[in-house]
């Protein structure tokens, strides 16, 4: 199983980059080659990262003092960056002949990944935030490598029908469960290993970008409030239940992990049991992703404008509700929903969530309530589900100045007790 549009989909003004992922069927000899490439690229990553850290340590000094007491005295090394490390690839293959068997572009892409991770750590983004420090990779951590050119004269990867020909690896059968649309230009191919086999992700360029819906053509809009009791609630009172895929798999996962803990680490039985654990995690992740796509397509088919709340999900994941929050994966869902909306020409808008669950959607009065209280009851007479009230506030906050009709939900002049209705999703991506 694979997904036509990944959460890493990117869109630009004149084209989109979509990810098409297919399973590969390599023979045993090719599997050995793929695993060997991953291990050699891991070792080269660790060497290149150590070279960068050593150069940083030897040249860094505090502003008000030198580092003679804590740093070795020696020749100051020259600056280490992607270009200096890429120029050393020829010497690496001379000293270690095994690297001659790896396609040169794959080694360069490995260094590019390190360079991006290094810059994210040292250089803050426009919001002043930086990424984590790049880490040394343990055995098996690097399970993917990229061919940056496909189907061009000097490319290392060529896709013809259902056969993928890779330089220095050979021809591998691709299980094309769906065709790549005509007119798409394949830019890159990434070979990656998962718990159930090897896959190839093709990054395709699509120049037929649908025009975004203009504001004056918006006919329907909604606000969505995500939660843990209900996955989301729309402004017209429809809700979707939380599937809890990880929670349901916990008992099975605990049993096979206990079995894994009793085995000798590194033995064949240990590897077989570890594969069972990894397959279960992969199955849960695929269930969750499929569910996210179903919900995203249902929303995009139903509304022209979808207003959501910009939550600090990373901060919420540090609370005692972390397991439930990570199980529903709000952040991944919002990325998928925005990608699907762009592909369909629909609009999405993120707004500030502060006060949406406290303020009354009918009169605007603040109604303080604890997290355990799931019903909003205001002095104006409005009694409504807490999440529905929040979705209505999100719709009002995000649709200010837009020429759209009412939310087809509550009429604040006629307060009454309302209950949300649940939606059964039976749609395909």
Automatic annotation (TrEMBL):
Keyword DNA-binding set for record: yes
A Pfam family assignment: HTH_OrfB_IS605
Residue ranges occupied by any Transposase putative helix-turn-helix domain in the UniProt entry: 16-59
Residues annotated as domain Probable transposase IS891/IS1136/IS1341: 211-318
InterPro entries to which the protein is assigned, alphabetical: Cas12f1-like_TNB (IPR010095), Transposase (IPR001959), Transposase_put_HTH (IPR021027)
UniProtKB keywords: DNA recombination, DNA-binding, Metal-binding, Transposition, Zinc
Residue ranges of every copy of the Cas12f1-like TNB domain listed in the record: 330-394
Organism domain of life: Bacteria
Entry's family note: In the C-terminal section; belongs to the transposase 35 family.
Protein's name in the database: Transposase
